[in-house]
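Entry 12.
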Amino acid sequence: MKNKILILVVLSLLSNKIISQTREIVNPDGKWFFGAEIGLNTITSIHTNHTNSIQGGILAEYYFEKHFSISGRIKYFESGVSNKYDSAKGLFEGKVISIPLNVIWKYRIINNFMVT
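Predicted 3D structure (tokens):
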């Protein structure tokens, strides 16, 4: 047991690498970044039994320059609302496709406080 702990400590000390936050590691100019998301959605407001459904989507982000990008996603999920007092008068069960688009400006405030 002591040998395993000693080996773990030695390996962790030898494998550490310090990276400064001032050094730019990735230059995203003109590059696309893609992703996917999936999950389980529980609709609690319809009926007394909770219905489960799958939600999922794809997303993409394009960088025009280091601080400016545009991102968008296409997401599918099921939704529902019911009237708490009389479910016969107000019930909605729907399938939704959401397509949000975002314009992102990443203002790096840390670099403005640094004196060189």
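Annotation: The helical segments are 2-15, 109-113. The mean pLDDT is 76.
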